[in-house]
Design goal:
The chain is an alpha+beta fold and 234 residues long. It has a single domain, classed as Alpha-Beta Plaits. It has nine helices and eleven strands. Strands 2, 5, 6, 7, 8 and 9 form a six-stranded mixed beta sheet that branches. Strands 1-4-3 form a three-stranded mixed beta sheet. A two-stranded antiparallel ribbon has the order 10-11. A hairpin with a 4-residue loop joins strand 7 and strand 8. The chain is globular and about 45 Å long. It starts with a strand and ends with a helix. The model has no long low-confidence stretch (mean pLDDT 88).
Length: 234
């Protein structure tokens, strides 16, 4: 298999794009379902992380697989990639596939994407830098299931505007918590989901907290408003 590694592990500082994801309601799920049941589903999520992080690119010369960096710990997943155009396309696409696949499996993922200088090294489990903090804070600021783009992505001197026009990025008024920065772009994940609407409805039925249910309503609004296949079948 011809593989292009769109990332690097290094203890030296590097400029990189980061995608940080968190599983909503993980503690509640563990408390109600028990460790054995959650563990089996968690293993499937970990495999989904691996599959989503490796993307086939077709050309006349054949198929090349582009791989972004990834790691998972507890209920958090991180993707990262080099500071170049091909790599960030891989990262955004991997993020869209990851969110969609996780939702189809019943795992509600919320995420944030950011850019900047950081240290990323799986061998020593070292993950430090402002873009990791920015991606984390962006993830926490949202009131839906999805992933918004931090301003550092748009502010990239050469790639910011191009990223905003990617097929897997959508201009959208991302629902955020009171007092949080405005997010105007998000990862466009629902075209990759086979049954997003049904899955979100099912997850919502298992939520008792009214405030938490609102997150699922806002996600359904995105699906019905911006995904033609679901809008047509509504």
């Amino acid at each position: 298999m011809n593989t292009v590694f769109d990332h690097q592990d290094s203890l030296d500082p590097q400029q990189a794009f980061i995608a940080f994801f968190d599983v909503l309601g993980f503690q509640e799920r563990l408390r109600h379902s028990g460790l054995s049941e959650v563990l089996a589903a968690y293993r499937n999520l970990a495999q989904t992380k691996i599959r989503s992080g490796t993307l086939p690119v077709f050309s006349r010369a054949g198929v090349t697989h582009h791989q972004v960096g990834s790691t998972i710990f507890s209920d958090c997943i991180i993707f990262w990639c080099n500071d170049d155009w091909e790599a960030v396309q891989s990262l955004v696409s991997a993020s869209a596939h990851m969110i969609a696949a996780a939702i189809d499996m019943g795992w509600p993922l919320r995420g944030g994407l950011a850019y900047g200088e950081c240290v990323l090294d799986r061998d020593t489990r070292t993950f430090i830098g402002q873009p990791i903090i920015d991606a984390y804070n962006t993830e926490k600021s949202q009131r839906w299931i999805g992933a918004g783009l931090h301003k550092s992505v748009h502010d990239h001197s050469t790639l910011g505007e191009r990223i905003g026009r990617l097929e897997d990025v959508i201009e959208y008024d991302v629902p955020t918590k009171k007092g949080q920065p405005v997010l105007g772009h998000a990862v466009h994940w629902c075209p990759y989901s086979s049954h997003a609407r049904t899955s979100i409805d099912e997850m919502k039925r298992n939520i008792e907290d009214r405030k938490a249910k609102r997150y699922y309503d806002l996600t359904l609004a995105y699906i019905m408003g911006r995904c033609k296949e679901y809008h047509a079948s509504g």
